Amino acid sequence: MADAVPVELPGRLAILPFRNKVLLPGAIVRIRCTNPSSVKLVEQELWQREEKGLIGVLPVRDSEAAAVGSLLSPGVGSDSGEGGSKAPGGSGGESTKQDTKNGKEPIHWHSRGVAARALHLSRGVEKPSGRVTYIVVLEGLCRFSVQELSARGSYHVARVSRLDMTKTELEQAEQDPDLIALSRQFKATAMELISVLEQKQKTVGRTKVLLETVPVYRLADIFVASFEISFEEQLSMLDSVDLKVRLSKATELVDRHLQSILVAEKITQKVEGQLSKSQKEFLLRQQMRAIKEELGDNDDDEDDVVALERKMQNAGMPANIWKHAQRELRRLRKMQPQQPGYSSSRAYLELLADLPWQKVSEEMELDLRAAKESLDHDHYGLTKVKQRIIEYLAVRKLKPDARGPVLCFVGPPGVGKTSLASSIAKALNRKFIRISLGGVKDEADIRGHRRTYIGSMPGRLIDGLKRVSVSNPVMLLDEIDKTGSDVRGDPASALLEVLDPEQNKTFNDHYLNVPFDLSKVIFVATANRMLPIPPPLLDRMEVIELPGYTPEEKLKIAMRHLIPRVLEQHGLSSTYLQIPEAMVKLIIERYTREAGVRNLERNLAALARAAAVKVAEQDSALRLGKEIQPITTTLLDSRLADGGEVEMEVIPMGQDISNTYENPSPLIVDEPMLEKVLGPPRFDDTETADRVASPGVSVGLVWTSFGGEVQFVEATAMVGKGDLHLTGQLGDVIKESAQLALTWVRARAADLKLSPTSDINLLESRDIHIHFPAGAVPKDGPSAGVTLVTSLVSLFSHRKVRADTAMTGEMTLRGLVLPVGGIKDKVLAAHRYGIKRVILPERNLKDLAEVPAPILSGLEILLVKRIEEVLDHAFEGGCPLRPQSKL
Ligand code: ADP
């Protein structure tokens, strides 16, 4: 270990050459000597000496290194042969060049070296050759400069002079403020290096001690000696005899080392971070796989794709589509499950695999008689409709691929359109699928979204086929009249393609992007009204109208079809619940006023639910009874509550009480129960009378998508400037009718005795307001013309309109009454409302043939040609027309 006291340097030193290496003072090296000249040197100068001697270590440069070395100065200290050469001492940085004995390669000696002492020696003899080698641990002590180099036997000896300062010189130099600053800076840098090293390996405690005890000029050497720096830098450190130069050089080197450590550390951290992330993922995946294997749950992504491929192979795709699918599958294989496109690509392939490319339901030999029976069994009445369906089926039987027209059932809700379509499917032994088109405004709903959109999906048809999983179902296009077109395209034109037998063989869904054959599908459509269906679409369809049922028909449907079905759906039978015909009639009259039977069915279901609760209660009471044998049961209680007579039964001792109640008497629906379950009646016959109780109100008949309806028209007058106000969500046609009606009434005011003379303005300082309740339902059409006139005449004449009379008809400016549509529905609606007289345009007479005879017989039908006749019928005591009127 280097100590603070400078060593005694002898005048001559045996020289050990260090090839391309420098021993700095304070440094300790372990060298192995095998070269005969160095072995000789070690043997003579160190091994054989009693007290440990010193040797000089002098750097030697290779010839090639010398060729580029900055310190080379050829010519200086030229050849000296055996006799040795005299090198100019003290001129730092010069080197002594000396040829080897045999004049081969010249040796480039550095002119400065370091005196060293051996800390440890060990001698070895190589076995067969007997060659001696030494391992020497050397410690550098102090710098010297070579005055003269000469050979002693096989090694060199040099006359040297000391370069380091003496103790007093040192003490003086230490006072130099520059040196103080430099040494402080060095120490700070060194300290920083130590603390960085400390974090890495906790074994630098000793170095820290060094920092406190060893003089700074020696520390500089020790620190630099411990780094791996280039030979040139080592040499220049060796040459830095001046303390200030040495310190600043050392500070620079220490700092550089420190920075390189920091940079290296940063890089390692980064690399480690990345490594550990992927390693972690790998490890987790391994674990997951192990867990799945353990659970026998082997459906990881890879297997999934294999399963998908198998499914695709079995899907029976046409060859070109199979090719397309394989291409997509290859893409999927290249993707990671976390990748954005993966799931959409997968969903697409799943769809391709699920679609029924080949799968069909086997069509049996069609038995027309059985089909008719089945239709009769499921549906009451509808004779014409059923006949048309049988014809349709017969054509299919004779020519299975006949491109017959598409059947379209048109009628109000609940008249059996859907159930007829499903009966067709049953008769043909095909699967049935209903596709709702109500509210479809976007063409993409039919044709799908292109896959470039996020969240894109196939259209409803392809989706429906996937769900039904056969390519030849009966597909019901429900509410085809409710599609509309807007900026997002025209769904009707897409439907046109679907229904066209020429085009639907290669139906192109945007999402699917490959053609799909729809030609095996049997399409049936439904609509509430014919009017909104675009004509080209209507052209492809054969319309079958279902106008709605009479109360008698409804009663039959309820008794034969609805009640048994509702009971079954609620787990009941007639042993538990009976709904007498009279009660069903009441439900039809008081709780439903509809063309179809949907609400009727709903009300029956409500009764069945109420009954089911009671039956369930009884059940549990009886089960309880078996154990504790109660004398009174809930059944008795409930009878009490219902106001039934209670009979006390005497139960003989020993008889099992539960047997008594095995067959409980059925619950029979009566009027109080109706009110209890369904609430107070919603409609009654007095409604019309109440509403026309004041002048200005008349009763019209209109036609809506729910069938025929009674439409009241209310008119009132108030102070104003002769304006006409109209409310109730009216369309243009109905607004014009109102205008027309007002004009006609004003023109005939005198004739109608509404004003004394014809020159008096009816609207003089008053406004008229006409309203059509219900205000939220949009209304349009010309058929309210006669009703409007009646209402205005009633208003101006202060006479009430007859409550038992309803009317419909378009009128002209001249007062003619023109025929209108939907007569059957309108007459049925009037009948439902309990109206007794109906005023109709004469030219609608032919339409009355459609109205069931029982309804007609209960109504007085008044056919009219002119509006005056309407007024005559509408008012009690006829119309007050003047005899001189110009009719
Ligand atoms: P829509 O499709 O016309 O709105 P649905 O076909 O859904 O009506 O019919 C509603 C309910 O009424 C169904 O339960 C149906 O079976 C029943 N229904 C309608 N008409 C008849 C009928 N003529 N005979 C038997 N049940 C009928």
Report on the architecture of this protein.
Strand 21, helix 26 and strand 22 form a beta-alpha-beta unit. The radius of gyration is 57 Å and the shape is elongated. Mean pLDDT is 79; it is low at 65-96, 99-103, 622-662 and 883-887. Helix content is 43%, strand content 18%. The strands form 7 sheets. A 5-stranded mixed barrel has the order 1-3-7-8-9. By secondary structure, the protein is α/β, with parallel strands linked by helices. Helix 9 (301-313) packs parallel to helix 11 (342-354) and helix 19 crosses helix 20 (581-591). The longest helix is centred in the first third of the chain and has 53 residues, at 243-295. It is built from 30 helices and 27 strands. Bound molecules: adenosine-5'-diphosphate. Residues 379-382, 413-419, 526, 557, 561, 596-598, 601 line the site of adenosine-5'-diphosphate.
